Amino acid sequence: MTTMTPGTPGTPGTPGTTMADSSATTAFRERIARVDAEAEARAAERQHAKGKSTARERITALLDEDTFLEIGRYTGSGAGERARPSGVVTGFGQIDGRQIAVYSQDFSVSGGALGAVEGDKIVRLLDDALRLRIPVVGLIDSGGAKIQEGVGALRQYGRIFNRTCAASGLVPQISVILGPCAGGAVYSPALTDFVIATREASHMFVTGPDVVRAVTGERISAEDLGGADIHGSVSGVVHYVAEDETDALGQVRTLLAYLPSSSEQPAPSYVYEEADRAQDEATAAGVGALVPSSTRQAYDVAEVVSCLVDHGELVQVQEDFAPNVVIGFACFEGRPVGVVANQPLHDAGTLDVDASEKLARFVRFCDAFGLPVVTFVDVPGYRPGAEQEHAGIIRRGAKVINAYATATVPLVTVVLRKAYGGAYIVMGSKAIGADLNFCWPGAEIAVLGAAGAVGIIHRRDLKKVRDEQGEEAAAVEQERLVEEYTASVINPDKAVAIGEIDAVIAPEDTRTVIVDSLAALADKRDARRLPFKKHDNGPL
Description:
There is one protein chain. This protein has about 550 residues and is α/β, with parallel strands linked by helices. The chain has three domains: about 25-260, Alpha-Beta Complex (2-enoyl-CoA Hydratase, Chain A, domain 1); about 275-445 and about 490-520, 2-enoyl-CoA Hydratase, Chain A, domain 1, CATH 3.90.226; about 450-490. The chain contains 20 helices and 17 strands. The chain has helices at about 25-50, 55-60, 115-130, 150-165, 185-190, 210-215, 220-225, 230-235, 245-255, 275-285, 300-310, 355-370, 385-390, 395-405, 420-425, 450-455, 460-470, 470-490, 495, 510-520; strands spanning about 70, 90-95, 100-105, 135-140, 175, 180, 195-200, 205, 240, 315, 325-330, 335-340, 375-380, 410-420, 435-440, 445, 505. Strand 3, helix 3 (about 115-130) and strand 4 form a beta-alpha-beta unit. Helix 17 packs antiparallel against helix 18. The longest helix is centred in the N-terminal third of the chain and has 26 residues, at about 25-50.
């Protein structure tokens, strides 16, 4: 056996030194401090001049204080003399004490372009999130793929898409667009559950304005082609348009407050005091005063929902897209639910192609992550016309049917004023699979409204009166027939009699009935033997 003496080759160090103050450690500290300071200074100079934060500043603003653990900071370069940051920061942290995975693209490093190193880091993070069953938040600010890496860069996008699809429906995924997002890169956020974009700085498009002009001759600005407002109101790609980065990151925290960390876990629940209950019940008692009795008069259903839920807090999703339907998150006695409601303020609350896809995907998201769905119905039907038929209202409207019919979470439905035809069926009816269905007094539930039904059923009789006695007499007879039809057919009695409606409830009792219904359905389980992941939440 060889005896080694201090200070000779092969020894851990010179006499009196420790790893804490060894020359290697000291050199490492100095080198990394210099590299990090230079990188952050360069990033701040470039980003702050545009009114944008650096990649690391964004992570700090998003996460609970001092919880970020960065992974792979010097992947691709090593931590030696050639140490340099890559175009993406990846790691783990906490939001309200719950663990998440986060990556933030660094536009100050080669425009945040994605290459082999950046792709490997994001893929590894997604793999870790899948293993750990934690949400993923991506902060997007990138010029696209590294052109010099060619197909290798494109390969990385494919790998990211693959992992994003694998995580869909298993862990919540949120993308925040804080700068450019173009080409194949746009599909990564589009595959996630929610996309948040800043109003001024973010752009998303498959082909940019220059390419559009070169190929089609059309001249269009980046804002008009793929700005946040366009995607928030026209395409529906963006679920929330934020005023600035602070607003965007705050919305991430708000959304996650309603969601479980994975499909295997329950959503978070919150302490609900007796004082809260008394206040919310007092507010809910006045809900009937918000809704006009005339089915032709508009009102804001978001106000109605806010009147019924805990603390009046409704977090809407896709508020500016297909506004004829309202979707969002709320709580009843401290427990999160998904809310779906027709919005009479916009197009009378009719269903069209956009509204159908909007609410169908939301119901599927809630089902994937175990959130009960409470549906408020006030719908005159589907929007008629050749435009809707040609846009695929049959195919796209059927997605709503599939979403409700396959959902296994508690489903509670309240018909506020009216529900006609196929729109009644798809909006969480008992026949399609809802658990408990209620309506307010006088709710109109039928194939058609009274005027339309009378016009078809009594067409010949009315024509005869018109021919023999004139228009005035025909109008009087039509009014009499409408009243008769309303009293005998479209009131809720028939729906109650055949079990389509479980009870007629007074408006002031709505919150209590919903709370009691959710309590009764709390232990609802899917009779099928399924893995923890029921299905993905791909874009519909």
